[in-house]
Design a protein that fits this description.
This protein is of the alpha/beta class. Helices cover about 45% and strands about 10% of the residues. It binds glutamic acid. Glutamic acid binds near residues 45 and 223.
Length: about 500
């Protein structure tokens, strides 16, 4: 086992848009396998045709393309262990069902949904198991002839695993250690359904993990209760020697920490719980995605990686390569991780700062085009360099920088009240005269003329600067004033001063 090549799989069921928790599961699988130079496999678990949702598989593939996380094998990639969609592996599973039946480790059951319902109403906490199975319609209670004739006459049946009661089942979990369960709490789960000739999740999952030579099963905590059944199946199929190592990841919790993160939390607090925007094919409802909200893929990866694990040395901003190096499955937390979406915004801010001004300008361009702004690229780069530290998202650049491209249409009332004094119009007129004579309009040279002028006149530095900013920006925000004047240029600065003097006098 130890010298086997590491092979891990991400095995989503295409029953809707992939949840952000699923993305974290996939990411941990990826980090673990890349760290061990292993293979990362995408397997689509689509044996439940009732819950199949069109577009869900494509959504999963697009999500990881966007994040820059690539699979080595999968339905979109091929590989030596395919097919990678369980619906295309139908004929593989039947022989294992037969093997279990032949060995008496599973049995055929004919109980109809109505009969099962009646049992549940009759017996409190009814469970199909060793204590009840002998009172049901199955191959343990019916004669072989009867079983045969019912199958031949087309009666639908299921195959159930036969769980031996009072056994100790041990699940060795990389994160949780040794988890011990008494088999009596397990029920005889359905492994196969004659109606669609398909195995259920449990059997298909185990057979495929075995055939695909999966070495580590890293998945969400919600699958921990299924693990004893899975261990039993490995034993029944005599595959114990190749049983993968299990690692059940901690749950993602609501931002407040009470209970499991849900889509409603996102709607309530205004953050996405899906990686990409999703349009429900039935209802047409649109759910927001991290991508469309303006998150950078690097930020999403970094944010998710630290929900349930951290490098232990205080580092927070880690690239995919850093994460791959530092990640440690054994050090994952056992307890749930609060989904601190504000931290996600903080990460986006960090990654915007890490990108070059050119890259950010490139990302800002579509928004500027939308606003009908056509400015030289190097000017946009300069503007970006002045305001990017003030934003968490690219789209916020507009709010911070629009005044560079458009003169103020109006002046913020509160700012006017506070900053535009009795003598401001006169001072700004004087200032215009000074600026008129400035030849080199670069920030430094302008500053070196304007500041000594204010001092020599004995004017209040604050009053002049505040009024000047109001005239250029329309309110009291923005970067260093002389950086603004340099970018606007002399003519525009003088125009804006003139306009403010006229409007505010
Ligand atoms: N198909 C299961 C899911 O949707 C896979 C669980 C597992 O990884 O075993 O999560």
């Amino acid at each position: 086992m130890t010298n086997k090549k590491v092979r891990v799989r991400f095995a989503p069921s295409p029953t809707g848009p992939l949840h952000i928790g699923g993305v974290r599961t996939a990411l941990y699988n990826y980090l673990f396998t890349k760290q061990h130079q292993g293979d990362f496999i995408l397997r689509i678990e689509d044996t439940d045709s009732q819950r199949f949702v069109t577009g869900a598989e494509e959504y999963i593939i697009r999500t990881f393309e966007w994040l820059g996380i690539s699979f080595d094998e999968g339905p979109h990639k091929g590989g030596n262990y395919g097919p990678y969609r369980q619906s295309e592996r139908k004929n593989i599973y039947k022989q294992y069902v037969d093997q279990l039946l032949d060995k008496g480790l599973a049995y055929i059951a004919f109980d109809t949904p109505a009969e099962l319902e009646a049992k549940r109403n009759e017996t409190a906490n009814f469970q199909y198991d060793a204590s009840t199975r002998m009172s049901m319609n199955n191959s343990l209670t019916l004669s072989p002839e009867e079983v045969q004739s019912r199958i031949e006459s087309g009666d639908q049946y299921v195959v159930r695993i036969k769980i031996e009661p009072e056994q100790t089942i041990v699940v060795n979990d990389v994160i949780r250690g040794k988890v011990t369960v008494n088999s009596s709490i397990l029920d005889d789960k359905v492994l196969y359904k004659s109606a669609d000739q398909l195995p259920t999740y449990h059997l298909a999952n185990i057979v495929d993990d075995h055939l695909m030579e999966i070495t580590h099963v890293i998945r969400g905590e919600e699958w921990l209760p299924s693990a004893p059944l899975h261990v039993t199946l490995y034993k029944y199929l005599e595959w114990e020697d190749s049983m993968p190592q299990f690692a059940h990841l901690p749950l993602l919790l609501k931002p407040e920490g009470n209970g499991k993160l849900s889509k409603r939390d996102g709607d309530r607090l205004g953050f996405p719980v899906f990686p990409l925007e999703w349009k429900d094919p039935k209802t047409g409802d649109v759910s927001s995605g991290y991508r469309e909200t303006g998150y950078l893929p690097e930020a999403v990866i970094n944010f998710l990686a630290l929900l349930g694990w951290n490098p232990g040395d205080g580092r927070e901003v880690l690239s995919l390569a850093d994460l791959t190096e530092a990640f440690c499955l054994e050090k994952c937390s056992k307890s749930g991780a609060k989904f601190d979406y504000k931290k996600g915004e903080w990460f986006n801010h960090q990654y915007i700062q890490l990108k070059s001004d050119e890259e950010i300008a490139e990302l800002f361009l579509p928004l500027l085009n939308e606003k009908g702004i056509n400015a030289p690229f190097d000017k946009i780069v300069k503007i970006v360099s002045l305001v990017k530290e003030r934003v968490n998202f690219i789209k916020e650049l507009w709010e911070q920088a629009s005044f560079f491209f458009e003169a103020p249409q109006s002046y913020d009332e509160k700012t006017v009240k506070k900053r535009w004094k009795e003598d401001s119009a006169a001072r700004m007129t004087e200032l215009s005269g000074i600026l008129e004579s400035v030849e080199d309009f670069s920030a430094k040279s302008t500053e070196d003329i304007v500041i000594p002028w204010i001092e020599s006149k004995g004017y209040s530095m604050g009053n002049i600067m505040n009024a000047f900013r109001l005239a250029l920006v329309g309110e009291s925000k923005g970067p260093h004033i002389f950086d603004i004047t340099e970018i606007l240029g002399k003519e525009e600065v003088l125009n804006r001063l003139r306009q403010a003097i006229q409007t505010l006098k």
